[in-house]
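Holo prediction. Input below; ligand is zinc ion.
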Amino acid sequence: NYSNWDYSDQGANWVTKFKLCAGTKQSPIDIKAPTCDEGLNNSITFTNYDKTGSSKFTFENNGHSLVLKAPGPDAKVTLGSLGTFNFHQLHFHWGKDDTKGSEHLHDGKVFPAEMHLVHINSKYSTFQEAQQNADGLAVFGVFIKVGQAENTAFNFLSSSPSLIYEGTKVNVTQFAINTLLPTDQTIFYRYKGSLTSPTCDEIVTWTVFDQPISLSASQLAQFRIVKDNHNKTLVDNFRVVQNLNNRTITYWSE
Ligand code: 1SD
Ligand code: ZN
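Structure of the complex:
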């Protein structure tokens, strides 16, 4: 079931096979006109995001993205009263060139790529269990722009020539996940949405950081050489933005 969808029309046809994709709280969205929420608990507490060690991450081509997985429940985040969420994996969405690639937009602006850090609510023991619940996941979205310098925190991207085909993976020595994040983690947007790929379950508390990170042009090029689940070049693996409908986007500022 994992292979019977692709990004050929940016998700428009998913609704015929995957009912949830036609829901009213779908992701991604264009983040604009957020409402300041004095009550939004701004503190994201990171635990073990700074941990380095000798255990192995895996970096894998799953036919839809490149995914970095940590070996166990280790890194986690607490989102105020929303609870604690264990880091599960991070992955990327990117364009065939720099004019597109991000899933979320920011005031209509598109970025060349976007990183998602997927976390599972610690009150559930498996992804499958979390998938049955509206508070199942917390996903962090980080916009990626193109910059002059190499971003050395993303050196693991240089293994993409070994990840051309779906199902291939490499080991990556454990590194501190917080090195991948924007330096300013205090400005972010929060809304309730969905997985951006089938089966589009509406189980995600989204946190999209305001500050983008930078990768060099050659680092972005490392994404664009891998192939998808139909053995075609995997580019433009983003879903088109969805209607906000009856939802608010909140932010908090000091
Ligand atoms: O697109 C990803 C999908 O590949 C899978 O990772 C899923 C569940 O982990 O999450 C979606 S997304 O909503 O994080 N883009
Ligand atoms: Zn994603």
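The chain has a mean pLDDT of 95. That is the main takeaway for now.
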